From TrEMBL:
Keywords: Coiled coil. PROSITE patterns: CHEW. Transmembrane segments: none annotated. This is CheW-like domain-containing protein. SUPFAM superfamilies: CheW-like. Residues 38-178 form the CheW-like domain. Residues 8-35 form a coiled coil.
Length: 181
């Protein structure tokens, strides 16, 4: 390796910096308002709770797999698995919202880009929603009760008359990165 070649640690630091910059830019776009949130968003459901997850943050959606338990992990952390040669920390969205349950065999995992990656376990990914319309009412009153107080909610959108939280996976990625993976 040449002395100028980037090290794994420096590349990981750069990825984390870019993820943080992306999250800030997305937040700034939401703060500016407008009629829609640009880009595609996955409409996901977990324990009857529906939300929009930015598709740009998702590497792929995979079927439920077996997890390797992680010692002393909180109840929403189901364990880890390997996806395309990289470790992924699996977190149950329903448990994060206070509805712990055993995911069904039909559950899906939205693998979210990050270092390390996070696999968000959901009951289903319903469809892709292009440029959802922003909710224009009182955000506090408009937030569905199951999502109130969740650090994952970055904003609200309206899709086919339903107010849906727009999720920001950054807190999950930060928690996994902070725990050492």
């Amino acid at each position: 390796m040449s002395p100028d070649a980037p090290t794994r640690a420096s590349l990981l630091a750069e990825v984390r910096r870019l993820e943080s910059a992306l999250a800030r830019a997305q937040g700034a776009l939401r703060a500016l308002g407008g009629e829609t949130v640009p880009g595609g968003h996955l409409l996901v459901e977990a324990a009857g709770r529906r939300a929009l997850l930015p598709a740009a943050r998702v590497v792929e959606v995979v079927r439920l797999v077996a997890f390797t338990p992680l010692p002393d992990a909180p109840p929403h952390v189901l364990g880890s698995f390997v996806c395309r040669g990289a470790p992924v920390c699996a977190m149950d969205l329903a448990a994060l919202l206070g509805a712990p349950r055993e995911p069904s065999l039909d559950a899906q995992i939205a693998v979210i880009a990050g270092v390390p990656a996070v696999g968000l376990v959901v009951d289903r990914v319903e469809r892709l929603v292009e440029s959802p319309r922003l909710f224009e009412g009182d955000v506090t009153a408009g937030t569905p009760e199951a999502w109130r107080g969740s650090t994952l909610v970055a904003g609200l959108c309206v899709e086919q008359g339903e107010v849906l939280p727009l999720l920001d996976p950054a807190p999950l990625l930060a928690a996994v990165a902070g725990s050492g993976g």
